[in-house]
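Entry for magnesium ion complex. Fields follow.
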Amino acid sequence: MKLSIIVPMLNEAENVSKMYAQIKHSLKKVKYEIIFVNDGSVDNTEIELNKIYNVDNSVKIIHFSRNFGKDAAIYAGMEVANSEYTAIIDGDMQQHPKYLMEMYNYLEKNKVCDQVCMVPAKRKNMSIIKRIGGKLFYKLINHISGIKFREDASDFRMFRNNVKKAVLSLKESNRFSKGLFNWVGFNTNSLIYQIEPRKYGKTKFNFKRSLNYALIGIIDYAENPLNIFTKTGAFISLLGVGGLLYLIIKSIIIGHIYHEIFIALAVILILFGINLLGISFICLYLARMQTEIKKRPIYIIKETKGIK
Ligand code: UDP
Ligand code: MG
């Protein structure tokens, strides 16, 4: 087989048959397989996927026992992918399968390139919070991590077997795919694509989930964000001592305690906040270490179709 296409799906019942038809229509000349990973959907995604298998048993389907996250779905798909190239594409038709052909041709022509990653052209219909949040996230992570993250790089990509093997060898259970594909290295190029509006179903990455995802990225890829607390901690403590000395001396000179005591209170509150932030970072590290130490499987399969 020349190409394996991994499609992670969570509650995408209305998109299943359309997505399948779109892929078939876009890839006529290539020998390919589609691997649908149903990431614990609670709508009719399972039924819709099985319907496709009943008419085309060349598709591979993995149904998870519950929602394990898109990154786990990508991992499961990669484990069964058995082709020269592997691609990942969203199952909501926001990423048009015609670009699969573009990536495929690019890899065929450029033998030195191991991985092509699709970057969306300017996103018009994106909320301002997501846009600003994304910008801030990449600024921060590029500043504190040893590897360079390309802003806006998506999971929409195609790569050779060397990349697949390398990413599969990273067995961590808290997976941040964009980071993993970056971390393994290799020659990566990017192409631009036009992101489509979502016609059916809704986004699974609301503000809270996106924020959590960004935190995973920072915790995993920042070489040592705890250093930030060491440095700011020392600086602020010195500032605090200076401020306190100033207040004491001023009170002695003036003869009574002034309203500066409120400033002192505010400073204490700020210091306390920073302290808590530092501790919460440590807790996040511990929690993540705990899940990694348990070495639980990245996903659990309920049923598969078309996989021996
Ligand atoms: N997805 C998934 N598991 C999840 C969340 C999302 O398999 O826990 C799938 C989802 O069905 C879609 C793709 O990942 O095919 C991208 O998700 P979504 O469209 O919600 O993200 P957005 O495009 O809004 O960033
Ligand atoms: Mg989407």
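NOTE: The pocket of uridine-5'-diphosphate (ligand 1) is lined by residues 8-10, 12, 39, 67, 69-70, 73, 90-92, 94, 203-205 (CB under 6 Å).
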